[in-house]
Amino acid sequence: MIYRTLFNINFHHAYFLNKGDDVFSGLPENERMKILRNYKISDYLKVVPTLSTQHTIKGYRLLFKPHSEGFRMGSQVLIEGDSDPVKYTPLIALPNDLTLTYKLYSTDPYFENYTQITSKSNNGLYLFSNLKPDSETSDFANIFTWDGSVDPDFLLTEEGARRIVHTIAFEDEFFNSNNNRFSIAHIDKSNIETPDNVALLEKYIQTQKSKGLIGFIRLSVKGDNNHDLLEFDESNPANIKQYIQNLPLQFTLGFKNRRTFWRYNGDFEGAPWVTSDTKPLVKNGFIPIGTSDFNPEPAVEHHFPNPKVNLIKKEESKYYSDIFI
């Protein structure tokens, strides 16, 4: 029984990986390897295949394998011929329209505090895909071609978020033992944008976001602009062959750490002292702060500790980290 990797997805988070002011990607390789040995996405993130995808995995002899940085998808394969390099074909051919979908949940209650991400109060959701939904504009990011950073180009419009949760609910309904005729899966696709259904879908989205839902990974066998999960030999239209990619597909989705104004509170003249610029939040290392980081500058030097992620406030459009000294 041979399995080959279809694709591998890593999740990197700058809050956990950066070392003070030093960005993870700029650290020496041995330092990066040391940091990754102690890094676990389970500290802040959970990846769950949808019901439909769980059944696809079983039916097509696929393998979902979580690991410390993310997860890997494999396919049981056959070796074809004696070519060099060896070619592997899926044991059960994958239909071109087959889509694998995974829900992303944050598991840390402070995730939004230290992550540069859309607010839970927003009805948008992220989608990491190789197919652009019809609801999105042409600049919507493709996971194959983007630099991997999780930014607004992966953020669905509110209409797009409503449509994707309805599509996924519809796909899962066949496998759902708790069939509920009042579920969002039973909304007629042509009536999604009626006021009552918009309200129902947005309520569902908010319920899921309150449980930590961030968005979805949704990869299709055939993607936009030949960004496919498999290689295809179409030289004989009567016998199109599909192969596992020679080099396994690798994707890294990088969450940015939030930057906040650091506000020092205490019984001292001019309190509170607030940094002139935002500073990055990091778990490891130390961000040095001096009197020159404030305007006006404090009259005396002081030890300025870094903030904790549990004391963050959003005031108007600005985020503040409160530190008591």
Describe the protein.
The chain has helices at residues 14-17, 29-37, 51-59, 111-114, 158-173, 195-210; strands at 2-13, 45-49, 62-67, 70-80, 87-90, 99-106, 126-129, 213-220, 230-233, 241-244, 249-255, 259-265, 273-274, 279-280, 312-315, 318-324. With 325 residues, it is of the alpha+beta class. It folds into 2 domains: 2-255, no CATH class; 259-324, no CATH class. Strands 1, 3, 4, 5 and 11 form a 5-stranded mixed β-sheet that branches. Strands 12, 13, 14, 15 and 16 form a 5-stranded mixed β-sheet that branches. A 4-stranded mixed β-sheet has the order 2-6-8-7. Helix 5 (158-173) crosses helix 6. It is globular, with a radius of gyration of 23 Å.
Summarize, please.
The chain has 325 residues and is of the alpha+beta class. The chain is built from six helices and 16 strands.
Helix content: 10-25%
Radius of gyration: 23 Å
State which percent range the strand residues make up.
25-35%
In total, the number of strands is 16
Through-space gap between termini: 61 Å
The number of distinct structural domains comes to 2
Shape annotation:
globular
Mean pLDDT: 92
- Per DSSP, the total helix count is 6
Instruction: Give the biggest beta sheet.
Output: 5 strands, mixed
Specify the structural class.
alpha+beta
Give the low-pLDDT segments: none
Topology as a string of helices (H) and strands (E): EHHEHEEEEHEHHEEEEEEEEE
State the main characteristics:
16 strands; 6 helices; globular; 18% helix; five-stranded mixed β-sheet; 325 residues; alpha+beta; single chain
